[in-house]
Design a protein that fits this description.
mainly alpha; 12 helices; globular
């Protein structure tokens, strides 16, 4: 990656300690995309649960991962809330950061679903509460994007998170706590928002300048909707290879092939907490594949299931280790210089004078919406 000062296409992006300057908080800055950490961990847990159907494994590993995810989630929620309501509202109005805010509630739904296996009533309450929060925030954000002067160039696949991921995950979790009518309604929200937002996002990705490097990991989120929709459908209707389930599975395979085309872009990136965008999306695809293995039971099913769960565990483990390395080195919550060059191999960055870099992670500087004046 060319980061030399003389490179006309290079843009050097710096964090502002993750928006602490917005409200003067003294707590370590936690941007909303950090909720992708417990989100990815709980996704890994679901993959292990799906694998246990074929491998006959105990629930010890997924339960341990759920406990770890819940611990990380609680710490991050407390740290994020400590920044104060002004900072949260500012994030909700930011065209780049806003889609990541509801991930806290979506993760809470999944944790409530996991809890329901041991404390059904408590888990059910958590699922209902966090599903309601997800729908409220998703609806508010949809209205915000309608009334604000939104620049399509600032869109990224993270826009799937509030309503598409929220609705589809909500469908799965509601089915797990025996609220099937609620789950079907939530499934409808997720599917319709996927159809409506998907065309807008593909238009942005096809015909506008490529994503800045800090946002390139969000391309992995393109894989999540068909995979999570398939998981939710199995939860609602039982593990049956219905025409709709096959259609969703086929599209998930197509989007997995698309991810292969993105690999050269991913390998050019410097590691940042934004890499957690890979974890839930790929874990959802792994879970969907494992469920299909349990449905079809092909010859060698245990081998396939073992390879899938080992691969997704290795991915999440590597990203976790790199994140811990940043934390131990004191570089997870502090400004980190990041040189961003060509976001794809066919699209160029616009000059810094024409377009500021868009970045949701701790290693980059968040971008203000058009409604706000740039802050010094």
């Amino acid at each position: 990656m060319d980061s030399s000062p003389g490179s006309g296409s290079a843009v050097v992006a710096r964090a502002t300690d993750l928006q602490l300057l917005r409200d003067g908080a003294s707590w370590p800055g936690v941007p909303p995309n950090f909720f992708g950490i417990p989100f990815g961990l709980v996704g890994l847990s679901e993959a292990w649960h799906a694998a246990s159907r074929t491998l006959g494994a105990s629930a010890v590993v997924p339960d341990a991962v759920d406990i770890l995810a819940a611990s990380v989630w609680l710490v991050l929620v407390m740290a994020y809330a400590a920044r104060g309501p002004r900072s949260v509202i500012a994030d909700l109005r930011d065209p780049v950061l806003a889609p990541f805010v509801p991930v806290a509630a979506i993760t809470g739904m999944l944790l409530g679903s996991a809890l329901s296996a041991y404390a059904f009533a408590a888990g059910r309450v958590l699922v209902v509460v966090f599903l309601a929060i997800t729908i409220l925030v998703g609806g508010w954000l949809t209205g915000q994007w309608v009334v604000s002067d939104l620049d399509q160039g600032k869109l990224h696949p993270g826009y799937f998170l509030p309503t598409v991921a929220g609705g589809l995950v909500g469908a799965f979790c509601a089915a797990q706590v025996h609220l099937h009518a609620v789950g079907e309604a939530s499934f409808g929200i997720g599917i319709l928002c996927w159809v409506l937002l998907g065309s807008i996002l593909l238009n942005r990705l096809f015909f506008h300048p490529g994503l800045p490097a800090p946002l390139v990991p969000t391309l992995a989120i393109e894989l999540a909707p068909p995979a999570v929709a398939g998981i939710a459908l199995f939860a609602l209707n039982g593990r049956v290879a219905s025409p709709l389930a096959c259609a969703l599975g086929g599209y998930a395979v197509l989007m997995a092939v698309v991810q292969l085309r993105f690999l050269p872009l991913y390998f050019k990136l410097s590691f940042s907490p934004g890499f957690w965008a890979f974890t839930f999306s790929y874990a959802a695809a792994a879970t969907d594949g494992l469920l299909w293995i349990s449905v079809k039971k092909p010859a060698g099913s245990p081998v396939y299931a073992g390879c899938i769960v080992i691969a997704i565990t290795a991915l999440v483990g590597i990203i976790s280790a790199r994140t811990l390395h940043l934390l131990r080195g004191g570089r997870l919550f502090v400004p980190v210089p990041l040189a961003t060059d060509k976001p794809t191999d066919i699209k160029q960055f616009r000059p810094a004078s024409a377009s500021r870099p868009l970045a949701p992670t701790g290693a980059t500087e968040p971008t203000q919406s058009r409604e706000e004046e740039p802050r010094a």
